[in-house]
Amino acid sequence: MNNNPRTTSYILLGSLTLIWGTSFILIKQGLKVFDADEVGALRVAAASICIAPIAITHIGGIQRGNYWKLFASGMMGIFIPAFLFATAQTRMESSVAGMLNTLTPLFTIMIGALVFRQRVAGFAVAGAIIGLAGTVLISLSRSGGEFVGFNAFALLLVLACFFYGSNLNFVKFSITDLPALTITSGSLLLIGPLALIYLLGFTAFTEKLTTQEGAWTAFGYVVFLGLMSTAIATVLFNKLVKLSGPLFTSTVTYLIPIVGVMWGVLDGEQLHGGHFIGMVAIIGGVYLANRRRD
User: Fold this and answer.
1) How confident is the model over 217-225, as a mean pLDDT?
2) Is this prediction's pTM over 0.85?
3) Alpha carbons 182 and 18: distance in angstroms, whole number
4) Separation between Cα atoms, residue 135 and residue 139, nearest integer Å
5) Among 40, 258, 285, 286, which is disulfide-ready with 130 (CB 3.0 to 4.6 Å)?
6) Structural domain boundaries of the chain?
7) Exposed / middle / buried, residue 207 (Cβ in 10 Å: 0-12, 13-18, 19+)
8) From CA 37, how far away is CA 144, in angstroms rounded?
9) What is the structure's pLDDT at 198?
10) Per-position DSSP letters for 53-107, written without gaps between them
11) How far is Cα 5 from Cα 7, in angstroms, rounded to an integer?
């Protein structure tokens, strides 16, 4: 990869945009057969199994005091959001889920200020308010384009963005002595067994896979999701955090909706004015929040 840190940062940012922008449509395909908890557990388990050979070679260099940090990072940045996004997409379009994901930078700023004592400019406060207003607009916008009824499932995505923002700061400021690949592989190795036990012991996944039409196709989509959007993307993500910081890394969410909306439209999803107004408000809020911090 290019030795220029700035160029490398933008290459990583572009790669993450394409990978994560595609993740929403992959979740949608998996939900055609499996329940939300099955999609979430399969995603994490598949990612863990795929990266296990790498994790085993890196685990010897992890000090005992870092294990709980890797577990916490895996839960905040991978495990919990995987279930929240899958559950939310049972009641909303994948492209809309991509729009709400733009809240991550706002949570990154707020958590950085409150927990890690990072300085916050006045623009950050204004940006947070505008961004949250955009979230409300998207949550209120129904399929007919009118602002009637609140989609409570949008709150699950807000919570997922909170965990993403928390993990960004946690990796940057609390796991300073480990490389990105070790953080990702170690985290997945620790949380993977939980996902696999839940998937095989507490869901109807196995029965659906062997009896339901289209199950193997849906299985392939979710496994690919786990490999690309969870395992590989998290390695790139953690590398970018260490190279450019949590705030720059979180700006990948500016671009994800573009890819997400593109896939959604190709898949026949309908978007309306309220969705776009909300997305513009969120992106505008994130821009203001970042204006005095770069």
Assistant:
1) 97
2) no
3) 23
4) 6
5) 285
6) 5-291
7) exposed
8) 29
9) 98
10) HHHHHHGGG--GGGHHHHHHHHIIIIIHHHHHHHHHTTSS-HHHHHHHGGGHHHH
11) 6
